[in-house]
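FAQ: What does the model actually see?

It sees only this:
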Amino acid sequence: MPSLLEAIAFRQPRRAHDELGRLLTGLPPGIQNKLEMLLVASADPDACVHCLDTLRQRQPGAFQHLALSQSGLQYVVAVYAHSRFLSEEILQHPYWVEQLTAMDRVLLADEYKKRLIEFLRHQPTGIPDALSIALFRRQQMLRILIRDVCGFCALSDTTEELSNLADSILDVIYQRIRADFIGRYGVPQYTDENGVTHECGMSVIALGKLGGRELNYSSDVDLMFVYTANGETTGPTPISNKEFYKKVANHYTELLSTYTAEGMCYRVDLRLRPDGSLGEVCISLDGAKRYYQTRARDWELQMLIKARIAAGDVETGRQVLDAVEPLIYSTTLDFSAVEAVSATRERISEKLSRRRLGKQAFDIKLAPGGIRDIEFLVQCLQRLHGGRVPWVRHGGTMLALARLSDKDLLSAAEYGRLVSAYRFLRNLEHRLQFADDRQTHTLPTSPDDLDLLAKKMPIAQLGSAPSGEKLLHELNAHLEAVQEIYQRVIHAQRPSYYNSPPPAPAEVDGHDKPEVVQSNLVRFLDECAPDLARTVSRAGLRRASGPFEHFLEKIVANAPLLALLNSNDTIARHTLDIFDHSPYFAEELIRVPELMQELNRLPAKSPYSEETAEYDDISELRRFFRREMFRIQAGSMCLRIPVFETLVSTSDLADAAIAACYRMALDQVAVSHPPSTPAYELHNQLMVISLGRLGMREFDLASDADLLFVIPDADHAEHLFWTRVAGRMIDLITAYTGTGLMFAVDTRLRPNGSAGALVQTEASYKEYFAKNAEAWEGIAYMKSRAVAGDTERATTFLNELQQVDWRRYGQSGRSKKDLRQMRLRLEKELGAGHPLKAGLGGFYDIDFSLLYLRLKAAGIFYKVLNTPERINIIEAMGHLERADAEFLRDAATFYRAMDHGLRVYSGHAEASLPNSDSQLEVLTELVHRWTPEHLNHQPLKVELSKIQNRTREIFDRLFS
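And it is asked to produce this:
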């Protein structure tokens, strides 16, 4: 056996080496060497050797011919390594490989039609048999797969060719069936409003992946049939046009879906037609228009983004699509509501909630962050922006992503993550499907099968040493990246923030690079904005020169904004400061340059309740929230406002937004679903309570709001009404539209978590906490306050609830032990991944220490809850030494400043310090703006280590 083949790790070495010995016998040395190299490089040498040996035995002449041909051996090894069902086809039809042509380009649908007509030359007329159609499909898929796995084409080429192949089959078969039925029943006709008779056609409209020209190797084809108008056929025994096309559609669907010895051609799914499974198999043009104008649900309109004419009468299909296009695109959509009723939410089902990779079957299409989430996200953004930006209207996901990015509707980072994930997932999906021509999206569970699957992936995605472990790692990274964007954009109930650090700003070597940047910008600005040019030159922009130039490109086209930037030195300096320290807010300024005007109104004002009380339009409220959030964070950076003052301002802004959404929700539900009791009077009975960071008035950029909804016992009869108000309120807060997202809402801290009622009575809360609540739940409620509705009653209720807590934990003496065990468990479970918060000496040490001292102080009720004020009260009561209190104030400020700096930089929460030196440099500069001078003498990591050690020493002393 040649030494080169020792590198092959055969799964069945004895059998494989015997078969290989037979294969090499009689082959010229050059062909032997070529075969050896192909086998070493193949994904599955075991399967290749077995199939080649079988071909040699069954058809020796064909084997010799393929081995001696220039590309034949490469092609068959590629197929044998990747696809069992096509391997069998080569064993039966080896000449297919010899007939392969046009391997360097995409074949169009018309070219496939010519091939199909030639393939059916033995049946030039009439309806072809299902076996012939299925065999043609497999013959053409052989060529498509070889181009794919040999790297001759991109993913988009593969999906386009699979779609073109389907189009050709659909059109040829439709025309054959229609012609056959005309021979039986005559030509279907209709009479228009002018009394003129016309032939009636039917359009075959493709939806889903075929509609978007992104078909899989083994996809369903989603179809809808629309005929032109009602009338009847011209035959001796006429039937209605509706009956005629029902017969055509049913025969068409049955023929395509018939299972044969060569598999079926396509599984046809008609469930996306009007009225779904209950609707007619075909519908008239007028009927389709009426349905979509009056009865279609949001998700039905959304799926029409991908609709296109695949076969049949083009004019009828065009009229349908022209009629529905204005209905598809809107600027006032609530995507949370769309998602809740959409068919795309199948993955919420318990049967599909298989999330842990490598332990049980995992669906890459329906999993959170999977293929369906990307496609749904893209469609939502298209619906949102397509009304004013027609350029983004396209059925294909990849091209739509590019167009959304092109119009700055996705950031470069978002586009990069989504495209990368979609390519990876679709390539993985293809390799799962073309193994056996099965519609599957489920990963194998055995390590050997995962390793084999990894080897079949394109080398660009897993590198030269693929493995199952590496596949799962890359898959998880992509799913997490998509989830972060998906949750933020579509359904921000509980975002799972992306944990990878954002791209680091360009490194700066000494002072040379800033001077180069300055000279480039000055030359650009000297003529149109000389004062701004001088400001830029003096400031010495050290980072983000590229984004700033992008910003200037937009500003130059806006004379008033350029004049403002040129004439107002303060605004210019603040703008440069933001670009130098916050890629996230720099991107916001690029997207919405008008935000720059807010820099003339620093610092931000607080509270906001009076101003938000005027809003009754959610889009206006979102614009206000976005504007004020920018102003608060700009003031934090540019005016060096102490971090806890910034957090109070952000909390006040969130409070005002919640209160405004409560008022809107109450007004809207009172009209749409009024209380069931006629005499029931509405006067803010619902109590909206915040916990966590918002409860402590330490809410920050990208924080989520933990909210509870409580009603008095006397209002229990209207529980359904108040549940609707709470649900509508959440939708208003969390929905993503063109005016942006405010923040996420989490309601899982209510009694019994997600399984409990969204709205509960005061009595049910008290009973739960007296009997059933875990210790951590009682402690969580110690950081609660009223934010909307009947706030006075809610404050009294929280005071009473805390007394229940204190009787269970503080008075009984359990709190010390329970809190210590809880804190150490959090450190064990979360500390490695979240060291700043949950690690040794992290912020949780401070928080738990203060919770313990509060319970120790007879469960004192605080209306003011932020960390420095809690420390002040506990120190004043004599439960904390002055030195410890001073240190804890410094430590809390330091931790919050670091967390705030990470959020300001990236726009989301980060769990640990950045690895990038340049990002760490930016973070250090920001932290020094918000912390006392004596904490700024050491490098950030050194100061952090000192604070962690001292914090843990105090924690241990309190809990010893």
